[in-house]
Specification:
The complex is a heterodimer. By secondary structure, chain A is α/β, with parallel strands linked by helices. Chain A has ten helices and 14 strands. The longest helix of chain A has 18 residues. By secondary structure, chain B is mainly alpha-helical. In chain B, helix 4 crosses helix 7 and helix 7 packs across helix 9. Classes of the chains: A alpha/beta, B mainly alpha. At the A-B interface, helix 2, helix 3 and helix 6 of A face helix 8 and helix 9 of B.
């Protein structure tokens, strides 16, 4: 097992809003290994995006607040690091790809300008070299006629093209980690496939570790090395792809997988009963308990810790599904 | 862009003709008669002759056509002739020009005399207002709900709510009556010599109070508008993208947010610029500035139709002109807008 490039421990993020405190991330711990592609899945509001954005302090602060936790990256703690150092890391060592390509580029600046901006900040390249690098980047993400395209404004490009530009911006300074927040959700399925291929290829060539946030279990199955499943601002299950899809140990993961449409079976799609948890109170028990068919009294009084159930397979549940009895 | 600009200017001509007809119609049917101010002892036939001499008996269309001919043909011809100091064919007969009922002098000449003081005061009022408002608006938005923002919001609501004639009188009371620092009225006869400091100083002293009043009023409005526009943009995804590249906050705000936020603000500024020429009736009255605003009010009181017609039309021309400028600026600032 290689050394982790990023190690997050007990991260807690809150939003102090007028309606009360939203407990968005409630003690998340995970490790990202060098060159690995880590999938993060969960429904809307499960805290997956906020967790990753907290790492780079890209959440609006205030109202957002990182109340606790450690995130070790290259011997620095991203939670405590001073703003100057954080700016060096952002874009330089950790790149971010955002969800909506239609809005994540500045409409009044050319694409070239927006790509070169991070090169200006994080590299010693001169003007000519930056131009050459920008052309190279657009080529790398599969944009034809890159030199011409650099002069285009975002509105002159399609959604897929814009997302490639966003990827090019994230890749510009060859970061060690790329955090991709639902990079294909806003795209057509065919474009989605192209973008996924592109990222897979880039990862192989550059050896970059990728955190891929998605709610699409199908996409992640063919892409990730390991998968983290989040619910209610906590990690409920971590496993390599095969065991996760083959023998999910958390009732929520099981529910998610059963709610996927399948071609090889004809039975009706299952849904998870109930509604997502109320985030206005800090959890004191398993957040999934109210919706869980295996729940028993312990589930409503104590938060289950992550326990190892197999090779790299951890689950946070008081109930052992395989044995059909409490752990 | 050039073709668009030319097209806009060409289409402005029929539009202005329509505007002139509308202004003319309103004035023609408005109550009030320039002969009505004559003493009652004047016999009816003299009164009738007076009306005849003013051309009031020519009928609606006849009077309008005469005015249009004078405005679009004789006045430009006269302007060219007096600038170039030569005659085009036979020199223009001064009687063919638009003559004010009350002063019996050409209306355009009077407007031309009144313009400098109005442009001085209102232009500077707008300029300083913008210079104060934009930084305040940007910072207020960036620090939304901070003490700075709350104080700024309060001050601008107060500034916007206080009428200029009231703040004007307060300033006159403090600085003219009690402290005797600045004159309470604007001396139009003062000829500003830019080579002489004392001459410039006199001009500054008489400008300070009216310009302050107008600047504060403008700043109150523009800072609210700037703040709203910046707030709109601060929450956009591209701002997060800019931060994720590791840009300093200063650059995130100035390179990304401000550039986008200024598009509507600049458009509003261009539109407001038309107001520099139309005058500010209240401010000009309080500070005794005989600009175009006070000219308008005086002409209205005297039922001076040619003067009103010409001045209102001039304001309409400026409004149309700055509308076109605003549209062109909009196209230049926002790459998403292309007119051709």
């Amino acid at each position: 097992m290689s050394t982790p490039v990023l190690s997050v421990k007990e991260l807690k993020t809150r939003f102090n809003t007028q309606d009360g405190t939203v407990h968005a991330v409630n003690g998340v711990s995970f490790e990202l290994r060098r060159g690995e592609l880590l999938g993060v899945v969960g429904e809307s509001g499960s805290g997956k995006s906020v967790t990753m954005m907290s790492l780079l302090k890209l959440i609006p602060m205030p109202p957002g607040e990182i109340v606790d936790g450690v995130a070790e990256f290259e011997d620095v703690d991203l939670v405590q690091v001073d703003p100057d150092h954080m700016r060096d890391i952002r874009g330089g060592k950790i790149g971010f790809i955002f969800q909506d390509p239609m809005t994540s580029l500045n409409p009044v600046l050319t694409v070239g300008r927006q790509i070169k901006e991070s090169l200006e900040l994080h590299t010693d390249l001169d003007k000519k070299q930056r131009q050459a690098r920008a052309v190279e980047l657009l080529e790398m993400v599969g944009i034809p006629d890159p030199a011409q395209r650099l002069k285009a404004y975002p509105h002159e490009m399609s959604g897929g093209m814009r997302q490639r530009v966003v990827i090019a911006i994230a890749l510009a300074c060859e970061p060690q980690i790329i955090i991709a927040d639902e990079p294909t959700t806003a795209l057509d399925v065919t474009i989605q496939a192209q973008i996924i291929d592109q990222i897979r290829e880039l990862r192989q060539n550059l050896g970059t570790a990728v955190i891929w946030i998605t709610h699409d279990l199908g996409v992640i199955a063919g892409l990730a090395d390991r998968v983290v499943v989040m619910y209610g601002g906590r990690i409920v299950e971590v496993a390599p792809v095969k065991p996760l899809y083959g023998s999910p140990q958390h009732p929520y993961t099981q529910g998610l997988l059963r709610s996927l449409p399948r071609l090889d079976r004809d039975d009706e799609l299952e849904s998870i009963p109930g509604t997502p948890p109320n985030m206005y109170t800090e959890p004191t028990s398993c957040s999934f308990a109210p919706r869980c068919k295996y729940a028993f009294d312990k589930c409503t009084t104590e938060i289950p810790p992550l326990v190892t159930v197999g090779d790299g397979h951890e689950v946070a549940c008081w109930f052992d599904i395989d044995k059909g009895e409490p752990r | 862009m050039l073709r668009y600009t030319i097209r806009r200017f060409v289409f402005a001509v029929p539009m202005l003709l329509m505007i002139s007809l509308i202004i003319f119609t309103i004035l023609a049917f408005a109550p009030g008669d320039p002969a009505g101010a004559l003493p009652l002892t004047i016999p009816a036939e003299v009164r009738e002759a007076y009306r005849e001499s003013l051309g009031l008996n020519d009928g609606f269309w006849g009077r309008w056509i005469k005015w249009v001919r004078a405005m679009f043909w004789y006045e430009p011809q006269h302007a060219i002739e007096s600038i170039g100091n030569f005659c085009i064919g036979d020199c223009i007969d001064p009687g063919e020009r638009i003559i004010s009922f009350s002063s019996r002098s050409p209306a355009v000449d009077t407007i031309y005399e009144r313009l400098p003081q109005t442009v001085w005061v209102l232009g500077l009022g707008l300029l300083f207002g913008i210079m104060i408002a934009i930084p305040i608006g940007i910072y207020s938005a960036y620090k939304q709900y901070s003490a700075f923002d709350n104080v700024g919001s309060f001050v601008s609501v107060v500034g916007w709510s206080m009428p200029v004639y009231w703040t004007g009188l307060i300033l006159i009371f403090i600085f003219s009556v009690n402290l005797k620092w600045f004159p309470s009225f604007y001396d139009t006869t003062h000829d500003v010599q830019f080579t002489s400091w004392s001459s410039i100083w006199i001009q500054i002293k008489q400008l300070i109070m009216p310009v302050t009043v107008l600047s504060l009023f403008n700043a109150a409005a523009f800072s609210r508008f700037t703040r709203a526009s910046v707030l709109d943009n601060l929450n956009q995804d591209y701002v997060r993208t800019a931060r994720s590249k590791g840009l300093r906050e200063f650059l995130v705000i100035n390179r990304h947010v401000v550039r986008n936020s200024m598009i509507p603000v600049v458009t509003l500024i261009a539109l407001s610029s038309a107001g520099i020429f139309s005058g500010a009736i209240l401010t000009e009255t309080v500070f005794r500035i005989n600009g175009t605003g006070s000219l308008l009010i005086t002409a209205l009181g005297q039922a001076d139709t040619p003067m009103l017609q010409t001045l209102t039309f001039f304001i309409a021309v400026m409004t149309v002109f700055f509308n076109i400028i605003a549209d062109i600026l909009y196209g230049l600032l926002d790459p998403r807008i292309r007119y051709d």
